[in-house]
Amino acid sequence: MHREAKLGLILLLTPLLLWLVLLIFIPHIDLFLVSMRERVGVGQYDLSFANYLTFFQEPLYLVTFLRTAVMSIFATILTLLIGFPVAYYIAKMAKGRTQSALFLLCLVPFWVSELVRTFGWMILLRETGIISNLLQSVGLANGPVEMLYNDAAIMVGLVYTSMLFMVVPLVTTLESLPDEVVEAGYDLGGNGLSVLREIIIPHAMPGIVSGSIVVFMLCLGNYLTPTMLGGKESLWFTELIYSQFIVRFNWELGAAFGFLLLILSSVIVWGMLRLTGQSLEKTMG
Amino acid sequence: MKNQSFKLSATIAVAATLGAGAASADTLRLLTWGGYAPEEVVAKFEAETGHTVEVTKSNNEEMIAKLRATGGGGFDLAQPSQDRIAGPQEEFGIYKPIDLSKIDASLFIPSMLDATKGNTTVGGDVYGVPHVWGTSGLVVDTAKASMVQDYTDLCASDVAGKVSYRLKRPTLIGFAYSMGLDPFAAYGDAAAYEDIMKQVEAKLIECKAGVKTYWGGGDELMGLMRSGEVVASMAWDTGGWKLNADNADITFVAPASGALGWVDTFVLPAKGKADDAAYAWINFVMQPEVAAMITAAAGNFTASKGADAFAADDLKARYQASFPAEAIDNIKWYPPVPAGLEAIEGGVLDRVKAAK
Amino acid sequence: MTPDLQCTNLTKQFGDSKAVDNVSFSVPAGSFFSILGPSGCGKTTIMRMIAGFLEPTSGDIQIKGNSVLNVPPNKRHVNMVFQHLALFPMMNIADNIGYGLRRAGMHKKDIGLKVDEALERIGLPGIGHRRVDELSGGQKQRVAIARCMVLEPDVLLLDEPLGALDLKLREHMKVELKNLQAAFDTTFVYITHDQSEALVMSDNIAVMNAGRFEQVGSAQDLYYRPDTAFVAGFVGDSNRWSGKVVKQDGGNALVQTTSGLTLRGATHGRALSEGDTIDAFVRPEAIRIAHNAEELANFDNQISGTVTSILFNGAASRVMVRDTAGHEEVAVNLPQSGEFANLSKGAPIHIGWASDQANCFAAGAA
Q1: N or C: which end of chain A has fewer CB within 10 A?
Q2: Interface touch A183/C89, C-beta < 8 Å
Q3: Looking at chain B, which residues constitute the CATH 3.40.190.10 domain(s)?
Q4: CB contact B282 to A (< 8 Å)
Q5: CATH for B135-261+332-354?
Q6: Shortest CA distance to C250 belongs to which of C115, C360, C138?
Q7: Looking at the structure, do residues C207 and C242 belong to the same domain, yes or no?
C-alpha cells in the first residue's frame, strides 16, 4: 500500500519535474553557458564575462534597458489605474449576467493573436486611419493626425494587451471583500475616498501586487507591440535580444542580455515589493 | 503484468520511431521564402516523384538562426542568399557540400551558376547553387516624389516625413554607394569597413527626422505606400512591381548608384536526411516552365535557362521599365559577407535607432 | 421626552413587492428594542433604511427628533453591528476601534485613550495590537460593539450579530449584550429571527411578518397576550388546532377542531361568532398533567389519553399525549417535581387546561 502511494506520487510529480527540468532548468543553464563565451576567432570561443561587460560599458544597451523598464512600470501603473475601477465594477457592482458578460468582454481581445490585435491598433491610429478621419470629419483636426509610431501608441498597446491580467486578480480579491465591510466603513463615518484608501485598497493589495507583477513582466517581455506601434527611436530591450540572436548571429551577447533581463527584472520586482511593504508569500497566500 | 505492459509499450514506441524514420526518407523539409514553393509546383512535384514536401517560410536571418540552433538539422533543403553561405559555414558548419554531379547544370544560366559556385566555395567544396535572383532599390510614387532617384534623395526636405526604409544591412550598403563609397570593396578590411559605416551612420542619423517610420515587414511597407502615408522607400523590386499593378504611379526605381543584387540559393543543411529528394526538387524547379510558375508567384526571375520565354508579359514589361540596359550593368551583386561584419553593422543600426 | 428613534409610516417598495409596508414605531432613549420576524419579513430592510444604506419609498425616520432622510450613512449618528461583524481584517483591533474616531478627525492621542477605555469596558484590555483573526467569536463580537460605541451613537443597530456563534456562546452573549447596553446606556435596535434572543434582551419587541408589524409590546405581552395568530404561533411553542366555533358565549367559545376534538377557548375580546373557522393555540406549559382525572376538576378542558412519546430535554422535557378517541396529539410540558419521572410510553394519563389559556383567532389571519 505504502509503496503504491509512493509510486503514485512519483507518477504525479513526473510531468511537473520533466517540465521544470527540460523546459526551465536546462535551457537556462545552456543560455548561461552560451552567455559566458567570448568569440575570439572563426569558430573559437573563450570563457569570459566580456558579454556582460559589453552591456554595462555600452550606454545604448543600458539606456534601452532603463527605458524599457521605466515604460513598463508606467504601463503597469496605467493598467492598474484603468483596471481597478473596471475590476471593482465587475466584482462589486455588476450582478449576474452583466457580471459574466463584462468579464467576457475583457477576454474578447484574446480570441485573436497579438499580431492581429496590434494591426487593429495600427488601423485605428495611423494617419489615414479611423480616428484620424473621424477627427477630421468632426472638424477637430484640419489635416491628418498621426497617432502611430510614438511612445503613447506603445502605451496604448501595452495597456490594452495587459488589461485582462490586471483585472482577473483584482476581481478575485475584490470579490472576497464582503459588502458588509465596505458598508461598515461608511457607517462608521468614512467617505468614498477614505473607504477606498483604508479598506478597499488594503484588502485588494494581494491582487494589486500579483496583477502588477504579471503586467510588468508581460510589458518588459513584449516584442510585437513596441516594435510595431513604436516610433523610430523606440528601442525595446527584447528587440535588442532578438536582433542579437537572429540578425547579428551574436548568440553570446543575446544570451547575456536574456540573462540580464531575467536578473534585472527580478531585482525590480523585488525592489517594488520591498517599497510597498509586500511579500511574495502574502500575495500568493 | 507490469513487465508485460512495459514490453508492449516499448515495442510500440520502437515501431513508431522506425515508422517515422522510414516515412521521413520521402519527405522533403524545405526551408524557404514565401512564394518560392507555390502549391501548384509542390503538387506537381509530389505527383511526379512520389516525395512529399513540407514547406517552412522564413527569411535569411531566421534560416541561419534555425539551422544554427540545431547544428544544421530539421530541414533537408534551405534557400539563404548566396552572400550568407560562406561566412556562417565557416563559423557554424551548418551546411554540407553539394554533389554537383547530381545537379543538371544545363538547366542553369551558366554565368549565374558559376558566380554562385564561386561565392559559396569554402575549403574547395561548393555549398550553393542559384535559384531566384532580384534586386533591392527604391519604390517611388512618381506622381508625388519623382525627384527621388537615389538612396540619399530619401533625406531631401521635399519628401520629409513621407519616406521609409528598413533598419537592416541593405540600407547601410545602399546609402554607402549612394554617398560615393564602395563598401563591398572594403569587405576584407574591417577597419576600412568600419570607417565607411561611421559615415553612413552619421548620414542616417541626420536623415532620421524626415523618416516616417522604419518598416519591418513587406506587408507594413505595402500598407504605408498604398495609403499614401509614404511616397518613397527602400524596397525590393517585386514589392514595387506589385504596387505598380494596383497604382500605375508607384513603381520600382533602380537607384542612380546602382540597385543591390541578391541571389537566393539552394543549400543542403548539414544534418539533412533526404538529399535525394532535395536534388530532385532542385532539378525539378529549374525546368523552364516550372521556374516560370515560381516567377509568377514570387515576382522575381530565376536562374533557370529559358524560363523567360514562359514569364508573363506584364512582369517583363515592368522589369524592363525599371531596368534599362545600363541599370542592369550597374547592379551591385552582394559578395559573401565575411564573418564579423554583422557585429559592426549591428552597432551602427542600434545607434541609429536609438538616436533622437 | 423625544424618542431616540422614530419611524413614521415607513414603506419600502422593491419593484412590485412591498418589503416594508407602512410601519410606524418609536424607541425611547436608553431602551433595547427588537424586531423579531422570520427571514424575508423585511426587518433587515428597516435596519438598512435606518442606517442609511436604503432610501425609504415613503415615510420618515427621525433620530432624536430630526429627520435623517437626506443624511448619508456616514453622517448619521447611528451605527451598525453587522451580521458577520464586518471587522476590518486589514487593521489591528485598536485601529478597528479607532477607525470612526480617525474619520471624525480626533487627535491621535485622544483616540488612543478612547480606544483603551473602550477595550477596558468590554473587558478586553491590552488586546489593541492583536489582529482580527486572532480573536475568538465572542471577543470579535465585543470589539464590533466597542467600535461603534466609541462614536457614542444615538442609536446602535444590531443585525442578527449572534447568528454566527455556537449555541453556548450565544446564550452567554445574550446576557453580555444586555449588560453592555446597560453599561453604555445607549438605545439598541436589534433584529433577529431567534425569539429567545429577543425575549431575553428586549424592553420592547416588534413582531414582524410580511412587511408589517403584527404586534409591538413587552416580551410578556407577546408571550401571554398575543394579538394575532401569527404572534401566537411564532413566539413560544404552542399546540395549534384549526376548527370551527360551535358556540360563542361572551369571552368563551366552544370549538370543534377539524379532527373532531371539542375544546373550550377564549376570544380575549376578538370578534368571533358561531360558524367561524378559527385557529386555537395552547402552550404546552399551560396544560396540567395528572395521573387522576379528579386532580383536574377545576379545568374546563379535560382530556384523558395515553402517552405516545416522551421527549426528554432536562427542564424542558415534554410528553406527547393522544386523547382516547384518537383525534389529536397534544404536547404537554412535564412538571419538574419528579412526580412523572417514571412515566412511560403507553401509560394512561389525564390532561387539562383553563379555557382562557386557549387563544382563539379567526383563521386566515396568518
Answers
A1: N
A2: no
A3: 2-133+262-316, 135-261+332-354
A4: no
A5: 3.40.190.10
A6: C360
A7: no
For chain B, say whether A246 makes contact (Cβ under 8 Å).
yes
Question: Could you tell me if the ipTM is greater than 0.90?
Answer: no
Q: How far does the CA of residue A190 sit from the closest CA of chain B (Å)?
A: 50
Identify the domain boundary among C215, C231, C247: C231
Given its phi and psi angles, is residue B236 left (phi above 0), alpha (psi -120 to 50 degrees) or beta? beta
Q: All 3 cell numbers of residue A225? A: 507591440
User: Rg of chain B's alpha carbons, rounded to an integer?
Assistant: 22
| Residue C267 and residue C221 share a domain | no
pLDDT in tens, A52-74: 998 898 888 999 999 999 999 99
Distance between B135 CA and the closest CA of chain A, angstroms: 20
Number of domains in chain C: 2
The C-alpha cell at B227 is 495609403
Residue C260 has pLDDT above 50, yes or no: yes
Do residue C148 and residue C241 come from a single domain? Answer: no
Please answer yes or no on whether C82 and A183 come within 8 Å at the CB atom: yes
The closest CB to that of B354, out of A233, A243, A248, belongs to A233
Task: Give pLDDT tens digits along chain B (356 positions).
Answer: 344 444 444 444 444 444 443 334 479 999 999 889 999 999 999 999 999 999 999 888 889 989 998 989 999 999 999 988 988 898 889 999 999 999 999 999 988 899 999 999 998 999 999 999 999 999 999 999 989 999 999 999 999 989 999 988 899 999 999 999 999 999 989 899 999 999 999 999 999 999 999 988 788 888 899 988 999 999 989 889 989 988 999 999 999 999 999 999 999 999 999 999 999 999 999 999 999 999 988 888 899 988 888 888 888 888 888 888 888 888 899 998 887 788 888 889 988 988 87
C227 shares a domain with C126: yes
Are both C324 and C217 inside the same structural domain? no
- The reply to whether C204 and C342 lie within a common domain is no
Query: Under a CB-based contact definition with an 8 Å cutoff, are residues A181 and A199 in contact?
Result: yes
CATH number at residue C347: 2.40.50.100
In CATH, what is the architecture of A70-234?
Orthogonal Bundle (1.10)
Q: In Å, what is the CA distance from C338 to each residue of A212, C335, C341, C343?
A: 72, 7, 5, 10
Of A42, A232, A247, the CB nearest to B211: A232
For A50, A66, C257, the CA distances from A256, given in Å and listed in that order, are 9, 16, 95
Q: Which residues from chain A sit within 8 angstroms of residue C147, using beta carbons?
A: 188
Residues of chain A contacting C89 with CB distance shorter than 8 Å: 181, 203
CA Rg, chain C, in Å?
A: 25
With beta carbons less than 8 A apart as the criterion, state whether A210 and A172 touch: no
Provide the pLDDT for residue A284: 58
Q: Which three cell numbers stand for residue C146?
A: 466597542
Residues of C in contact with A285 (CB under 8 A): none
Nearest to C277 by CA among C298, C296, C256: C256
**Domain carrying residue C246:** 237-362
Verify whether the Cβ–Cβ distance B355 to A233 is below 8 Å: yes
CATH topology of domain B2-133+262-316: D-Maltodextrin-Binding Protein; domain 2 (3.40.190)
A245/B contact by beta carbon, under 8 A: yes
Instruction: Look up the pTM and report it.
Output: 0.81
How far apart (Å, rounded) are the C-alpha atoms in residues A178 and A201? 14
CATH value at residue C16: 3.40.50.300
- Chain C interface disruption, residue of A187, A196, A200, A282, most C CBs within 10 A: A187
Chain C hits for A198, Cβ within 8 Å: 88, 90-91, 99
- pLDDT tens per residue across span B52-89: 999 999 888 889 989 998 989 999 999 999 988 988 89
A232 contacts B214? CB cut-off 8 A: yes
| Burial of C143: CB neighbours in 10 Å, binned 0-12, 13-18, 19+ | buried
Q: What is the mean pLDDT of chain B?
A: 87
- In this structure, the answer to whether residues C65 and C134 fall within a common structural domain is yes
Same domain, C241 and C135: no
A154 and chain B in contact, CB less than 8 A: no
- For residue range C4-44, what is the model confidence (pLDDT) as tens digits? 899 999 999 998 889 999 999 999 999 999 999 998 899 99
Domain ranges of chain A: 70-234
Residues of A whose CB is below 8 A from C86:
178, 180-181, 183-184
**Could you tell me which chain C residue has the CA closest to the CA of A194?**
C103
C99: which chain A residues are within 8 Å (Cβ-Cβ)?
185, 188-190, 198
Nearest CA in chain B to A235: B354
